[in-house]
Every structure is written in structure tokens, then in C-alpha cells.
Specification:
Helix content: 25-40%
Shape: flat
Number of helices: 16
Structural class: alpha+beta
Strand content: 15-25%
Radius of gyration: 58 Å
Largest sheet: 9 strands, antiparallel
Length: 904
Amino acid sequence: MAESNATQVILTDDGIKIIKAQNTADNAASQAENADSTALIAQSTANAAKSAADSNYDYANSEMAVQSTATAKAQSTADNAFSQAQAVGSQASAEISSNSTATTKAQSTADNAFGQATTAIDNGKVTSQAVTDLKDGSKLTIADLENGLATKVANSDYASYKVQTASQIAQKVDNGAFSAYQTTTADLIAQKVATKDFSAYQATTAKSIDSKVSSNDFNTYKTQTTDLIDDKVSSSEYASDKTQTASEIADRVSNSAFSTYQTQTASQIASKVDNGAFSAYQTTTADLIAQKVATSDFSAYQATTAKEISSKVESSDFKTYQTQTADMIASKVSKSDANNVNLIPYSAMPEADNLQWAESGTGGTLSATTHAFYHSGADSLYELNTAGSTEVFAKSPRFKINANATYTFQLKGFAGSNVSSMDVYVLGRPNGSTSDFTVAQEIIKGAVLSKSALDYRTVTFTTGAIDEAYLRIDNNGSTNGAISILGFTELKLEPGNTATPYVYSGQDSMIAQTSSDVLIKVSKDDLIDEINLQAGNTLISSSGQLTLSGKTIYFDTVNPVIIPNANIADTLNGKTFHGGDIISNANNTAKYYPMTITPDGAYKSTYFDSAVGLQSSVESGAISYKYRSMIGSGQYLAYDSVINGQGFESQSGYTSAKDTTFSNPETITGYVNVTPASGIYLYGPTQKINFAGNADNIGSNGITMDAYGNIYAQANSSYWRIRDINSNDIVDFGIDTAGANNIFLHRELDIGNFHINTGHTFTSADNQAIHFAMGKGGAADIYAGAVHYTSLVKSSLLSVKRDVQKADTAYWAQLVNSIDLATYQYKSDDNTSHLRLSSIVDDVNVTKQWQLPDVFISRDEDGKLCGVDDSVLLNATLATVQEQQKQIDQLNGHLLELEAKLNG
């Protein structure tokens, strides 16, 4: 194949012009696209204007729909506004059409520029032969072209040509014809796109849209439309219309015809009542009554009767009786307890077959039963029982109640020792509501009633927006899984802020009389006699004394008699006093009374139910409390506590049989003593001191100390802290179960001569060495980063070594020389870390890529790779130096021999 000459491709002025023409065409096309985009924006703005007009039109319609006279006027105004908006839209469309014409012109200019460039090339108007050759196609093969280019690019001629070409391009681009052509082209495009026709189209379109949408006409239209609607709706004619309508109604109701009608109606009624026939009838009736009342017979009868009544009533004795009786009635009737209303139906003494109250909740039982605490078991009360740990409820029937009013509630009740607590709710709703309740008021919360007597509670509260309500009593559950008994009775809800005595009646009652409403009609000498006659052996004298006579005197047990003071002529000695009746419970085998005072001066209070027996006593200068479980199998819990002059003692244990007499032998399992002499003394596995904390989760975020003095964290505890008097931390012991909280020491820790302070320093107090040793003997490994030291000493005492042999330095030198050294950086290094150099322990590849004899590798007790054993490596390096010294000595000997021979 014949060798062809390399062809140079020369970029001439005409070529640059062609390229610039193409760029000009592309820019013109881009300007055309921008013009289209401007047209679309104009269209969108016009649409927005039309939409705003439509919205104003719709709003005007909605406002005018409710008007009368103003409607037609507002409709006309809205139609005009819509017409103006349509005109704006039409003008915007015209501007868009004009802008589209500008777009077409710009596109045409770009097409013409591109066509001229193509025609110049096709018609041979470009004088450069190189361009013509390129247009007709190259005659070189690819291999020839590559060889030629390589030759030209690699040699100095090309470098010179590259500099010359760059210079020529710079001359063409920066100066002369190119700058003129560039300016001319820019001017041509600017003339078409940025100024005159195109700018006029663009500016005119923008201004037209802006003038119509954002300002002047459109703003005026928008303002006018708003003002017109506002004028019609908010002021002027609409206000006048509104005023006129109100005036017309007022005129009809308050004035003129209506007033006339009102006056006429009143006059007609007056004419019937005040005048004519009615007045005549009224006068005739009055005259007839006067004839009967004013006659001498009636007057004589009236005077005689008055005198007889006066002789009976106006005497001093009667007035005395009258005053005394009135005072007695007033004392009973006119006080606050006279208005003795109770809103709660069936509030006491329930009937088992007609309970009326309802129970809800899981595992609860509501019943009517008797108990020794209440009227000595003579009358029934409510019992709400459960063995579960969740609350159960007793609900009363609904009753009417006033909204936002003050009420006072009271109850009597008792609770077993295993009742966690009780609540009382008033659950109300307004008239017409079908909800169970809409307002819940907890008027008594978490109350623990007495377990040894009938307890009394009262509370005053204000209702909410309710018209009817019911009462709910909550037993909040058993604390030990045994049946927990909550008894209650004599519930009373009354208006006001004063609790008045409970009134016993089948249904609610109110006494509404006052002393002025009670009429006394008794003859002069008969009042005291009648009372004495009815009372039998009861004598009331006119001197104010009450005499009770009889073998046995009974006081009302339902409403107990209160004797403020009583004079006993002599002391009562050698007597036993019992409070109440014998406790009615199967566990009361010793026949205890609820309260007993014995002749030796001891006071005992006793309680029994199916689960426990309780007894407290005051005797021998001490107060003692005893708890005995009535439930067990071979072991029955027994707790005893005593408070005396020496302190407080409490012990836990059990009896082998049920202890119903509080006297069976006990097996003691633990006790707590608090005395001035010994302080707090704990014994037993269950005796502990709990520090409960003061947060919302009280009882679970403190600590517990057992009888040995050990400290235990509670479930939600985080730290156990030691602080100084100013609450500055000294030590924080993390005690959470997750182990997330550490132990923090905020002062120097001194352990013998070893001190650790807060300044990152370990100190030897006696200036002796610090040893890191393993528990099984020997020194412990230390892992650290960079170690800075003043001296490094290795223990190499012969006395601690065995199997000591002289090393083969040649062998160790051979091992050292087999090591692959590498430069590297650790993955944790940053870009400021210096380059590192060492051997490599290859713990990545199965087939090791880095040579390091195993004797230089350190492993832990489990055989896991740790790193390089620098101690062995250092001494191996020393062996290498010794071996090299031997070789140096040998070479020096040879060198001396050679020098001797040469000099010889």
C-alpha cells in the first residue's frame, strides 16, 4: 500500500463563521421557545384574571341572593364587572396573538440564518479548500489519519502549530472581523429579540396584562367590585334596607296599629272587668257579704268569741306555754336541720329483695346485710365485696340535681384491712342526654375507711352542667387476693355547705315548716297535763325540769340521746364497760365486744371478719396492736406492734393454729425496733428500710436497705448519689437494671498509695512503682494508644528464667530478613497523621499476603492475634546486628588481605 501524506485540518475564518451562524440559529430558536413560554405565562395570567372575576361574580351572587332591593343592583354591577373581565381577557388574547406573531418572526429569523449558512457551504461560497474537502469527504483511511495525527500531535511542529492556532483563534475571537461579526450578530438578534419589534411585543404584552390584571383598570375593577358589594352588603342601601326592615317590624310591634290593637284589647278587657255589669256584680256581692258580716248578731257573736279566746290565750300562763312551745318548736324546726333534704334514694337500710342499687365491675358482689358496727347488727347496710385487685362499683338510682350548685355529701362506712381504698363519684348529665354521664366528679378519692368501727366522711363540692346524676361507690380492690369488704350506709346529699343529721325514712323527705307556721291550740291548763298523760312516767314541770321514772329507761338507738353533762354522785369502781354488742362473727370464739374497758384500767378495741382479727389495747403504760390472719394452712400470719416509753417495736411471725384469742404462741420471723438507745434495729429476711423517692412513680425509684445493710435498687431507680450540703455531687452510683448508668467519682479516689484524681492522673503516693499484675500471678497486659515514657525497662533477671540457651544469631537474622515491611495509616487516622512503618500481622487473608514469622506475633490466652511482639522483634534485630557485625569483621579481614597483596 502506498504511503499517503498526512492532511492538516485548518479552521479558517469561514469555518468559524459557519459555526457562529449555527450558534446564532440555536440562540434564535431558544429565544423563540422563551417567547412561547412568555405567551403561555400571559395566557395563564389572563386565565387567573378571568378566574378572579368569576370568583368575585360568584361571591356577589351568594351575597345578593339574600337581599331584596340590593339584589338587582348588585347583579347589574356583577354583570358589568364580568363584561370588563371578558374585555380584559379578549385584550390579553389579542396580546398573546401578537406575541405569537413575534415568536414566529424570531423562529423565521433563526431558520433563515441556518439556511444561509447551509447554502454558503453547499454553493461553494466558502473559499477554503479544506472546508470543501471536508464537505466532500476525506480520502484518508482511519489508520492513516491516526498515524498522521499521532505524528503531528507528538512532534514539535504540532506544538508550534497549536500555539500558532491558539494565537490565531484568539486574534479572530478577540479582535477585528470576529468581534465585528460577533457584535453584528448580537445586534441583529438584539434588534429582533431584545429591542424594537420583539421588545415592543414583549413590553406591550406584559404591560397590557399587567395593566389589566395588576393595576389601573383591573385593580379599579377589583376595587370597584369589592366596594360595590361592600356598599350593598355592609353599608348604605343594604344597611338602610336592614334598618328599614327592623323599623317596619318595630313599627308593627311597638307602634301605631299594633299599639292601637294592644290598647283596644286592654280597653275591651278593662271595659268588662272595671265597668258596667262586672262592677255592679262586684258591688252587689260585696253588699251581700257586708249585710251578713256587719249585722248586730254577727258583731255580737264575733265580740263574744274574741273575748272567750282572749281570756284563754292572753293569760300569762298560756303566753308562758306558748313561748316555751314556740321556742322548742323553733329549736327543732327553724334550724338548718329542718330543711333536711336528701337527694339520694334508698340511701340506708336496704332490703335484700328490693336492693335498688346496682353493681358493676368484674368479680364484685353488692348485697344487703347486717354488721355489728351498724346499730349493733339490728339494721341492714350495703356491702360491696371483691377478691380481685381491680375496682368494682355500686351505683345508686338516678336523681334530679341543680347545675352549678353547692352540695354537701356524707356517708358512714367501714372497710376490711385488705381493701386498698375507696372512691365516691357523682356522675351527671344534662336533660335530654342519653349518655350514661357527661360530667364525672370524684368527690372522695382514695379514702381508707376504718376497719374497727363505723367511719364518717363528709365533703362539700359544686356541681357542673348537669340536671340529673347518680352516685357511684368504688371498692378499689383487694390487696391480698382474699375477699375485701366495703360497708356503707346513711348516704346523704343535700344543698348547701353544711352537713345536717341523717333522717331515717323510707324515701327522701323535707320538713318545710317554720315556727311561725305551727299553730298551737291548747286550753289554758291542759298543756303540761296532756304531755304528762301521754308520757306515762315522764314528768315535765313548769319550772323546766324533766323527770324520768321507771325500772328501765330506754333511749332511742336510731337517734341517740345526747347528754352534754351528767353528774354522778360517786365514782364507778370495779366495773367493766362494753361498747356495742358481742361481735357477730364465727371467728369471735372469745365473745369479744367491739370496745371493752376492764376494771384493771385496760382499754381494748376488737374487730373480726372472715379474713382477719384485729385488736388494739392501752394497758400497762403501752399501746399495742395485734393482727391475726384467720386464713391459713398450718401457718397463720401474726403481727404485733408496741409503742411504749422506750420506743417502738414491731414483729412478724406466725402461729400454728388460728389465733382467735390473740394469745397463741408465735414463731418470730423478723422484727423492727426503733429506740433511743439502739436506734433502728432490723432482723429477719423481710425487714428492710425503703426509701421511696418523691416522683410520680413513688415507691419504685428509690433504694431499699435490708437487715444486713445491703443496698438494692428499686424497679425504676437510676442512681444512688452522695452529695455535700450544697447538693454538689460527690459520687453517683448507677443502679439501673439496664446497666446504662455508670459510677461517677467527682473527687480524687485514694486506694492506699494508689491515687486516681479527676485530672487524668494515676499517682503513687509513696513514689514507688505501680504494678499491673494478673490475679493468677505475673504481669497483666496493658492495651493503650501512644505511650510516652522516659525510660523503658524490661525485666530480664536470670533468677526468674529457665531453659536459658545461647541464641543462634544467624537463625534470628534470617527470620528478621524475611519480614515484609510496609508503610500505612490506621483507618482511624485523619489526613494530618504521619506515615507509619512496621511489619504487618495479616489477620485478613487465609493465604498470608504479608510475611511475618509467627515467633514475632503476640496472641492472647485464647490464641487470638493481638499484634507484633516488639520485645522478641527488638532482640531478633539485635541478633541481626550481631550477625552483620560478624560479616563486617570477615569482610574487613578479606579487605586487609587484599590490600596487603596489592601493596605486596
